[in-house]
Amino acid sequence: MENQQIALVTGVSRKMGLGYETAKQLAEAGYRVIISARDVDQLSDLSNQLRKEGHNTSALTIDILSDESVNYAAKEVAEKWHRLDVLINNAGGFYDQGGLPMEQSFDFVHKAFETNLFGAWRMIKAFVPLLEKSDNGRIVNVSSGAGAFSDIAFGLIAKGDTTAYGLSKLALNGLTVKLAAELKSKGIKVNAVCPGFTATYPGTAEWGARPVEEGAKSVVWAATLPKEGPTGGFYRDGKKLPW
Ligand SMILES: NC(=O)c1ccc[n+]([C@@H]2O[C@H](COP(=O)([O-])OP(=O)(O)OC[C@H]3O[C@@H](n4cnc5c(N)ncnc54)[C@H](OP(=O)(O)O)[C@@H]3O)[C@@H](O)[C@H]2O)c1
């Protein structure tokens, strides 16, 4: 059995993205990091990059929309490492700025929920048996203030109207609460984290987005919580966010 802590991060397809930076910070903290994405070429470039920097990384192709892909990945992790310590559900998207409820298409709303809610849920269902084998099982759902009342810039009552995205992240926060209660007796902590408005696309820093290192640090905080740490909450920068 490998002694090094093992973390799996979904949605690691871009060097500028939160997934890559989160994986890098966890590797720097001493974790073996399994990075995953649906695009094999992007994944292998990023995995090579992390290895070049001296990090202990592996790559697994995962499309979080596919039972077959997710179950195959869980089988691979079981065969190679026999357990998982940290699962980071970072893959997500469908940010519909200006998406008013009366105007948004159901096709788009379904896609947002399929990825942001059901994709994360599918990963959790497949990987909990491996997290149960860890002494420090942690699940981090990368969520967003877009799903909270309290976020005046991007939240439920903000002017931006991100209906599909915001409601899917609101549901992800709700799932976090339910799972935290169910998995508590197994020693697995489940938390949702908003990384804050983060510069993961060119030009967004100019609009006030913070460096990706800061957003990812917020995620890593929840992934590395000590035994006495919280479960079932929604956090940014280690501070509880009101919904
Ligand atoms: N940046 C921000 O300001 C901000 C703020 C709050 C929350 N977040 C959240 O942070 C997370 C990362 O966002 P980001 O800003 O770093 O943008 P990003 O690079 O676009 O991250 C999204 C990742 O999810 C992947 N993905 C989408 N559908 C997938 C699927 N079916 N299977 C596997 N992977 C899939 C994308 O892969 P492809 O390249 O293949 O599409 C991409 O790697 C998201 O959950 C986002 O909602 C971001």
Put the structure in a nutshell:
By secondary structure, the chain is of the alpha/beta class. It has helices at residues 18-28, 40-52, 67-81, 106-131, 163-183, 212-223; strands at 6-9, 32-37, 57-61, 86-89, 138-142, 189-193, 234-236, 239-240. It starts with 5 loop residues before the first strand and ends with a strand.
Written description of the protein model:
This protein has 243 residues and is an alpha/beta fold. It has a single domain, classed as Rossmann fold. The protein contains six helices and eight strands. The protein has helices spanning 18-28, 40-52, 67-81, 106-131, 163-183, 212-223, and strands spanning 6-9, 32-37, 57-61, 86-89, 138-142, 189-193, 234-236, 239-240. Strands 3-2-1-4-5-6-7-8 form an eight-stranded mixed beta sheet, sandwiched between helices. The chain starts with 5 loop residues before the first strand and ends with a strand. The mean pLDDT is 96. NADP nicotinamide-adenine-dinucleotide phosphate (NAP) is lined by residues 10-11, 13-14, 17-19, 37-39, 62-65, 90-93, 115, 119, 142, 144, 194-195, 197-198, 200, 209.
Q: Tell me, rounded to a whole number, the average pLDDT.
A: 96
Q: Low-confidence parts, pLDDT < 50 over ≥5 residues?
A: none
Strand order of the largest sheet: 3-2-1-4-5-6-7-8
CATH superfamily label: NAD(P)-binding Rossmann-like Domain
Order of helices and strands: EHEHEHEHEHEHEE
Instruction: Report the structural category.
Output: alpha/beta
CATH class: Alpha Beta
In CATH, the architecture is 3-Layer(aba) Sandwich
- Percent helix, as a range, is 40-55%
What is the terminal-to-terminal distance?
40 Å
Number of strands: 8
